[in-house]
């Protein structure tokens, strides 16, 4: 019996990295290929526990490198693609938008073309609720799969563009695809530039925690392991061509999130420092995941249980985030893969 091969792009990042670990451990009879360029947010130290397993494989490559990607697909004949690779930091997209177009749009097209050429069983494109734009503060309104796309940042515009490409490859070429759009993720191995890990690391170091504007912007928080389970389900059971929203039913203002972390760690709220608001800062995101729930998925973490687990993980794994902040993690690839 042939072993199924799954390509996970962006598997050295936060969500993709957690998905790689989830799949390697859950499916020992699948070969999981982690493809990542190892840009500043790409970290392989998180995979120390799985890197020697027989069903884990790492490939360093740029998804926008057409020749390298086509060669890889022709060689390995992947059954599935789970496409996480993307530039995702909104602040960086405001100062360097061209990088987001190259990776998120052109890179996705290169992958889609390779997937079409070899005939993959399923291509799952992992997108974001940010492509829908923003909601007002009415607690009865939510993003559904039918909500029009109205991205407000270069990041979300690049993701919306890649969503349209995925849809086009399904409609034009019959490529079996799904698009998932998730709310804000949190959990282990979250790069320290994002709100929750930034707050945890700053508070533990007794440093000021920056909060944009008045801190009242609302996000729907989804634990990354719940997200991994959702992608697994869509990969195997998703109806071809369909979009599935993934949300955690956990709306909180940014200020509430920061205060929860500070209070859990027993520190003073005087560490909070309000800073000038982000350009084009969306007011609220909130997901209606009913369609995915009907497929068989439900989140297992409430925000209370998830944030407690996450804070404890950062307390127990200072080795990880301290070497991320120092930059030492960037030497891991050289030590483990180039010099061994």
From TrEMBL:
<dbReference type="InterPro" id="IPR036291">
    <property type="entry name" value="NAD(P)-bd_dom_sf"/>
</dbReference>
<protein>
    <recommendedName>
        <fullName>dTDP-glucose 4,6-dehydratase</fullName>
        <ecNumber>4.2.1.46</ecNumber>
    </recommendedName>
</protein>
<dbReference type="GO" id="GO:0008460">
    <property type="term" value="F:dTDP-glucose 4,6-dehydratase activity"/>
</dbReference>
<dbReference type="InterPro" id="IPR016040">
    <property type="entry name" value="NAD(P)-bd_dom"/>
</dbReference>
<keyword id="KW-0520">NAD</keyword>
<comment type="similarity">
    <text>Belongs to the NAD(P)-dependent epimerase/dehydratase family. dTDP-glucose dehydratase subfamily.</text>
</comment>
<keyword id="KW-0456">Lyase</keyword>
<dbReference type="GO" id="GO:0009225">
    <property type="term" value="P:nucleotide-sugar metabolic process"/>
</dbReference>
<feature type="domain" description="NAD(P)-binding">
    <location>
        <begin position="7"/>
        <end position="310"/>
    </location>
</feature>
<dbReference type="Pfam" id="PF16363">
    <property type="entry name" value="GDP_Man_Dehyd"/>
</dbReference>
<dbReference type="InterPro" id="IPR005888">
    <property type="entry name" value="dTDP_Gluc_deHydtase"/>
</dbReference>
């Amino acid at each position: 019996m042939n072993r199924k091969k799954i390509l996970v792009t962006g598997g050295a990042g936060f969500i993709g990295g957690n998905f790689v670990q989830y799949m390697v451990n859950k499916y020992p009879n699948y070969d999981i290929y982690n493809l990542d360029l190892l840009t500043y947010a790409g970290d392989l130290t998180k995979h120390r526990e799985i890197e020697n397993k027989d069903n884990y494989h790492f490939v360093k490559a740029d998804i926008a490198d057409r020749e390298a990607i086509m060669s890889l697909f022709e060689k390995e004949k992947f059954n599935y693609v789970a496409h996480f690779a993307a530039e995702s930091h909104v602040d960086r997209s405001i100062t360097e938008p061209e990088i987001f177009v190259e990776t998120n749009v052109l890179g996705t097209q290169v992958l889609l073309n390779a997937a079409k050429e070899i005939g993959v069983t399923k291509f799952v494109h992992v997108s974001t609720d940010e492509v829908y734009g923003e909601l007002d503060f009415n607690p009865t309104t939510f993003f559904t799969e039918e909500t029009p796309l109205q991205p407000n940042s270069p990041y979300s515009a690049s993701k919306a563009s890649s969503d349209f490409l995925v849809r086009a490859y399904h409609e034009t070429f019959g490529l079996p695809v799904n698009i998932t759009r998730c709310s804000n993720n949190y959990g282990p191995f979250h790069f320290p530039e994002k709100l929750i890990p930034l707050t945890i690391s700053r508070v533990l170091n007794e440093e000021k925690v920056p909060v944009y504007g008045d801190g009242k912007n609302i996000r729907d928080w989804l634990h990354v392991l719940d997200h991994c389970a959702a992608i697994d389900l869509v990969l195997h059971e998703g109806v071809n061509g369909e979009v599935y929203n993934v949300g955690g039913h956990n709306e909180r203002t940014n200020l509430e999130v920061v205060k929860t972390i500070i209070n859990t760690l027993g520190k003073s709220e005087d560490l909070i420092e309000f800073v000038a608001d982000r350009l084009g800062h969306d007011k609220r995101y909130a997901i209606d995941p009913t369609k995915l729930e009907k497929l068989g998925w439900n989140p297992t973490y409430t925000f209370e249980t998830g944030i407690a687990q996450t804070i404890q993980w950062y307390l127990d794994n200072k080795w990880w985030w301290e070497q991320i902040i120092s930059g030492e993690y960037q030497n891991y690839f050289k030590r483990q893969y180039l010099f061994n």
